[in-house]
Design a protein that fits this description.
There is one protein chain. 34% of the residues lie in helices and 34% in strands. Helix 1 packs across helix 3 (83-106) and helix 2 packs across helix 3 (83-106). The chain has 160 residues and is an alpha+beta fold. The strands form 2 sheets. Strands 1, 2, 4, 5, 6, 7, 9 and 10 form an 8-stranded antiparallel β-sheet that branches. A two-stranded antiparallel sheet has the order 3-8.
């Protein structure tokens, strides 16, 4: 996986989170690679990528973190992970990926996005991409905020 694909997602995630959380401190944890299925923390917004490359970006967080982020973004304390909270987390994923893909377009990479799909539940797991040349590793970038930890999980591969 080329770093040129990853950096825009990491940088944009950091910047957008800082902005939508009202200037809150955002720290980047240690990056790691994962090549097998991995459990989701509770709420995951998934955006598919197609074009020069194929893949997906997943924003993974606990229910508590999702509720904290949605509350902060809406300027009011949300009591339940309801439709407003779900729409807010989907919009966060949309904001980040759209801005990252715009940066990639400026670097002459061309891809399209799928609308965010939101998954919420316990004991779910996301598998790495698989295909003709085997599994594609996912790069995980933990972002720690005062609202909780959000993992940006990027799996992209170039067409053979």
């Amino acid at each position: 996986m080329r770093v040129e694909y990853i950096n825009p997602f990491v940088e944009t995630s950091y910047r957008v989170l800082k902005e939508v959380l009202g200037g809150a401190d955002v720290k980047r944890g240690n990056l790691y690679l994962k090549s097998t299925a991995m459990p989701v923390m509770g709420v995951a917004a998934l955006v598919g990528l197609a074009g020069d490359v194929e893949g997906r970006v997943l924003f993974d967080m606990s229910f508590e973190t999702a509720l904290n982020v949605a509350s902060r973004m809406n300027g009011e304390k949300l009591e339940a992970f309801d439709e407003l909270a779900k729409a807010t987390i989907s919009e966060l994923a949309n904001l980040i990926t759209a801005q990252a893909v715009t940066k990639l377009h400026e670097l002459n990479f061309k891809f399209d996005l799928t609308p965010p799909a939101l998954f919420a539940g316990q004991k779910m797991e996301i598998s790495a991409l698989s295909g003709g040349s085997g599994n594609v590793e996912a790069l995980i970038v933990p972002l720690i905020t005062e609202c909780g930890k959000i993992e940006v999980n990027v799996a992209i591969r170039e067409h053979a």
